[in-house]
Amino acid sequence: MPDKFKKIYKKIYIHNLCSTHKQHLEKKLLNIGKTISEEVTLNTQCCGFAGDKGIFFPEINETIGEKIKHQIHNEYDVYLSSNYTCELGLKHGTGYPFQHILHAILKSLQKDLTKSKILLK
What is the 3-state secondary structure (H, E, C) of the chain? Predict the structure, then answer.
């Protein structure tokens, strides 16, 4: 990984989407997390959103979200997902402020981006 990445978090939670899990790409996602955080927890449990199915059947997502919520106990600096629909489902199902992993990666580069006059909030 490039030297420009900064470890800006102590502890992060990454939700790995189902297709990444099926492709056995967890190690790559974990390595990305380790470039921005000292400690990384990677969860491969399905969020229950199932593409867009969670929009039409939110009760599935809510049930799975409750299980995930009790596993993570609000102990992380940031909650990340590698997929926008999973992010949406996890926010709704757990109540935690999930965001796409790209936001955290860009934030870790913020110092270098500031030189380019690109600011992230």
Answer: CCCCCCCCEEEEEEECCHHHHHCCCHHHHHHHHHHHEEEEEEECCCCCCCCCHHHHCHHHHHHHHHHHHHHHCCCCCEEEECCHHHHHHHHHHHCCCEEEHHHHHHHHCHHHHHHCCCCCC
